[in-house]
UniProtKB/TrEMBL annotation:
SUPFAM superfamilies: CoA-transferase family III (CaiB/BaiF). Keywords: Transferase. This is CoA transferase. It comes from the Bacteria. InterPro entries: CoA-transferase_III_domain, CoA-Trfase_fam_III, CoA-Trfase_III_dom3_sf, CoA-Trfase_III_dom_1_sf. Signal peptide: none annotated. Gene3D superfamilies: Crotonobetainyl-coa:carnitine coa-transferase, domain 1, formyl-coa transferase, domain 3. GO terms for molecular function: CoA-transferase activity. It holds the Pfam family CoA_transf_3. The lineage of its organism: Bacteria, Bacillati, Bacillota, Bacilli, Bacillales.
Amino acid sequence: MEQALKGMKVVDLSQVLAGPYCTMVLGDMGADVVKVEKFPLGDDTRTMGPYIKEESYMYMMVNRNKRGVCLNLKTDEGLQVLYKLIEEADVFIENYRPGVTKKLGIDYDTLKSINPGLIYCSISGYGQTGPYKNKGGFDIMAQGLSGLIDMTGERTGKPVKVGIAIHDIAAAQTAIQSILAAYIHRLKTGNGQYIDVSLVDSGLAWTVWEAAAYFGKGEVPRRNGTAHRVSAPYQGYKTKDGFILIGAANQKLWEKFCLSVINKPEWIKDKRFLTNSIRAQHVDELEVELENVLKDHDSSYWLDLLDKNGIPSGPIYSYDQTLADEHILSREMILEYEHPVAGAMKTLGFPAKFSETPGQFKSPAPLLGQHNKEVLTELGYSIEEIDAFQKKHVLS
């Protein structure tokens, strides 16, 4: 099958997670992604374990479907190679701190003069403007500034970081949708443009319910554990042997839950539990009452009963359980492939299932400088010139 982004050419100067995740998805959808790594050691993720035969699993996870070049941009020759790549590129992605690209000679104005139709995407911690623009910003700092850490954790506990690098992935997703929108615009007009994406903005944009509560009523989100601030029961509850999630968060589900699952018809008329909003005000009392019932049986008993009665529910898995779950496997969210050095490997699959242009795994993450000769030959360089570049430390 032909892929949706076949023909799109992407030059990727990003590293670690947000940028590489973005370009991985573009590559999954058919774009020709050339990953340009810094000389001489490449993407910083290559130094992060675990390692399989000295290859970083972290690096391999987000750099599939790319060709790899290791280029010394501090040399005139290296810069000229990049400029040649830009001549034919549709998209350029970088995640340097603001100001660094200007010093390197790869800023938007410079590359736009080479290719006026270029879509140039910068990903940074705080963005290209504002008082924090020059600060270094990792995911955890973005979680702190966006308020996410303060609203995560148990009510009486310390603030807690979200378990994944959520702002990095939010920035990656923002970059993907923005690049695709700019690409459609370019197809219509022929015009490229500059895209400024920040980790902070991207994650903050996901806090829509919290913003509604604050703008509408002045409510500052508080730590609620797994509980919801306006719906109940909608959280994790303790059973005889563990924890389960229950989401009887509207009146019809609540009444069915009381009658057919926990056999507590009297709760339907209990003044503390009359409506969803009232239940949310008495969420702690509801939790105590409900766990006094759930403690009588194992999680599997309750989950089966909840399913039979159409009440949204589910387990709280450890990650190894997630990756072994039959539904996850049936959705092909675990892919197996062969890496030229590391051997048999597993990676995550494609979350969107296209009927006509599905994501495809075409190649594992490149070895450092694996495609130097291939890419430079396509740009018109001779083998002798490429060999000379390697001797002069233009290429790694």
